């Protein structure tokens, strides 16, 4: 109980304020450090998503843009739907294999470099103060990255193939493929931005404009070469 106030000449307090202070019995308040640690543990570390997110987004965009551009290039010189579909399917298989192998090799190289660094740190500290098991868990997974790239590439490549397979008219087919690819580019760009907590509009526009440029360049150059009878 806190007593605040003054005293009169006869020693009697004329004004005082009693402030009750209640202390809960049997309840131990957590230190500030423990509260901060509990709050920080609930925060998601989005940087941990970078490994598989990068491979998935890259694979999906690459499959979508490369196969669509390949089909648009073939469609620039041939109106036969079989030629477009065959070129697109070949691009899907070849691209998925290429993405998986390339991602596996690059990530495995990174894995070897980081493992070597862990061993150097362990030797420098005489096996003390280095939690190798924890560090190993944070290393990139080559198999996971390769699988994510191949699957994502295949998903992206299926969009122009499905868009073209049911349309017989050549001009309408080309327009539908371009529209379907544009919509898929916006979706992939938005999904990648949401998962990585980056600006959605900027990501969507960047992916969309890049896809348009790839299809336009491929279509134009193929049309030019085809008209020159090379």
TrEMBL record:
Keywords in alphabetical order: Ion transport, Iron, Iron transport, Membrane, Transmembrane, Transmembrane helix, Transport, Vacuole
Its membrane topology: Multi-pass membrane protein
Function: Vacuolar Fe(2+) uptake transporter.
Catalysed reactions, as listed in the record: Fe(2+)(in) = Fe(2+)(out)
Subcellular location, principal: membrane
One GO biological process term: intracellular manganese ion homeostasis
Subcellular location: Vacuole membrane
GO cellular component terms, semicolon-separated: vacuolar membrane
One Pfam family it belongs to: VIT1
Coiled-coil spans in chain: none
Protein family: Belongs to the CCC1 family.
Name listed for the protein in its UniProt record: Vacuolar iron transporter
Organism name: Glycine soja (Wild soybean)
One example GO MF annotation: manganese ion transmembrane transporter activity
Keyword Membrane listed: yes
Signal peptide start-end: none
Superkingdom per UniProt: Eukaryota
Transmembrane segments annotated in the record for this chain: 81-101, 145-167, 174-195, 207-226
Record carries keyword tRNA-binding: no
